[in-house]
Structure formats: C-alpha cells, structure tokens
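Readers of this paper often ask what the protein records in our data store actually look like. This encoding replaces a full spatial description with a residue-level series of whole-number codes. For reference, a complete record is included directly beneath this paragraph.
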Amino acid sequence: MKGLEEAKELYLSRGKEMIHTRFPAYEGRVAVGLAGHGSECFGFDDALSRDHDFEPGFCLWLTDEDDLAIGASLARAYRTLLPPKPGRKSPLGEKKLGVLRISDFYRRYTGCSGAPESEEHWLSLPSWALAEATNGEVWRDDLGAFTALRERLLYGMPEDVRLKKMAACCAMMAQSGQYNYARCLSHGESGAAQIALTEFVRQTCSMIFLLNRAHEPYYKWVFRAMGQLEKLSSLKDALEFLLTGENDSTLKQGVVEDLCAQIIAELKQQNLSDSGSDYLEDHAFELQERISSRALRAMHLMEG
C-alpha cells in the first residue's frame, strides 16, 4: 500500500474518531491530510522508500490560535494512534507528521506564514519548495484556512513571474543545448559537452512544468512527475535518452533540436511567442517583452 493510502486509512479508521471524541469543539477547525516532504506525499514511494525518514501517519494543521489552545494535547492524542516504528533518520530530517501550525508548514517552504506577497518573492522561491507545499491530499478542512493558502500557491503565481522564468529557461536551453553542446565537442571537451547537455535537460524539464503551470519537484522525481503532465509529457523519453543513451553526438544534437522545436510549438500554441526563429534565445526575448512589470522585464534575460 502506498504511504498516502496508508495515511488516509489510519485517519479514517482511528484518527477521525479520536478528534471527534476528544476534541469535539475543534473538530471542524482541524485540517487533516498528508503533504510536504517525502516521496509518499507525491505518491512516488515504493518498498525502498521506507528505508529512511518514513513513518506512517498524517498531518493535523492548526491555526496559531488553535495550536495554543489544543496543540500539545492533540499532539499527545495523535501519538497514541500508532506506536513509532524504528527506522533510519536522515540528519537533515524534520518533523513532517502530526500536529503542525499552518503558518509553520508554509513558512518552511515560502519563508513566510503563507503565500508570497510580491513578484520578487515568487521569483525567488525554488520550484521544488512550491511542489512540496502543494502535494499530497487534504481530507478535511472545514475552516478552509489551510486550503486557501494551498490554492494560492498552486494557482496564484503571477503571470509575469511565469513569463520571466520561461524566458530564462529558453535562454539557457539555447545556450547549453543549441550552442555550447556542439561547441564543446568541437573543442574536444567531452566532459564540458556532457555538462552542457545535462544543463539543457534540466532547463527543458523546468520549461515543460512552467508551460503546464505546474511546480517542478525535487530533481529525482522530475521525470516521474513529468509523465503525469497534460502537455509535453511525451518528451520525457527523449530527455532521458540525452542523459542515458548511446554517446552519438550527431543523434543527440538532432534530439536537442527536435525538443526545442516542440517547445517552440507549445509557446506559439499558448500565444507566448510570435517569432519564426528555431533558436530559443529569440523566443526568450519574446517572452521577456510580454512581461508587464518593469522590474522583472529589466532583469537579465537568464535570471529566473
């Protein structure tokens, strides 16, 4: 059973009744679900995932006010639901289950108690942090406080920020894949060429998530998550080939150009570029010109 399913079963079989019986006045104020750090929150876990930093359980999110009132007693009650399981803990592991303040949960990912208030703050946040803040499932949130912030992070990125991030991706894809990969090979720098190709893949993955208006997760889950996207998920195999396929530079350069052509086609489909160029840097300037914010538009093309 997947960790997300196991967590929900625990809540429905034992946790729901515990809250109802012991905290009836707060039953409609406690948000319950599983989200945050860990492969189980994305639904990507397997048997191997349980060898470290895994324990069955779920999250109980409280407002600051409610945490002061019942946080400690709710935490004690939660711990009686399931005895702790032995397992290897990462030195960087954090508390991710049980009773959490809503503000603390989001501060972990955004640096503030909720969603960013400025475009500059949005731009500064790594995509993996936004992905972890909005993954998993929420099974109950009558109060709506947790879900309101979750939806702002899921759907509230300003369009100017998305455009700036896409412009940077296009510029970096052009530089690394369409220009420097072949140039490094011409110089006999095979290691540098591989770094250029890896950078191209990384930037292309980010671009695909942005074109889907989705948050890109931590790098080890990027390809698995990409397969679930509505647009351009079919490019996953070609991107993996660039990293793992036979070392045929002519073939790989052709794959790079084909990937760029499909990205350009999607940009045009979304009315984000009018350029007829097959070089992605030209489309980066098109994206940059569509930014309304003077401050973001004035930033270096590759910032994002």
About this structure: The beta strands are 31-34, 59-62, 98-101, 137-140. The mean pLDDT is 94. Residues 159-297 form one domain. Residues 155 and 213 are 8 Å apart (CA to CA).
